[in-house]
Amino acid sequence: MYLDLLAALESSWLGHAGRHSAWLYTGANLLHVLGAAFVVGGIAVFDLKVLAEHGKHAWQVGRYAIPLAATGLALQIPTGTLLLAVEARALGVNPAFYLKLAFIALGLINVALFHARFGGPLRTGALPSEARVYALVSLIAWMVVLLAGRMIAYL
Fold this sequence. Notes:
Layout: H1 2-11, H2 13-20, H3 22-53, H4 58-86, H5 88-91, H6 95-124, H7 131-151
Helix pairs in contact: 2-4, 3-4, 3-7, 6-7
């Protein structure tokens, strides 16, 4: 079923457009990289604040970093879909692609758990020490996402 979905995506109008328009593919690639910079940059700044200062005033950083990361994610979803559609049958079975998806899931689950658990304390100005574990998991997860994304081209 998964392979059928990949084949359908590749043969869709989106896959066709991506393969036959250098500008569309190039623009999607550029926006995907920009989205990655926003996601990882925003998240890393926030996580480093939590790690370095135990979350003291992390909400001040989060006011800017979290919307930046969300904007990056909003760029990455449609552009990543287009980039995948171009060669979905080959890319969709790449081990690095599986790794990337797994760590995206880990990163998103981690951020949801962080905000569910520490959303209140975050607004008060200081976080408990266990918040640092979530920040470390987040940093590692999103760095692996970047690494795996780059490795797709080499595997």
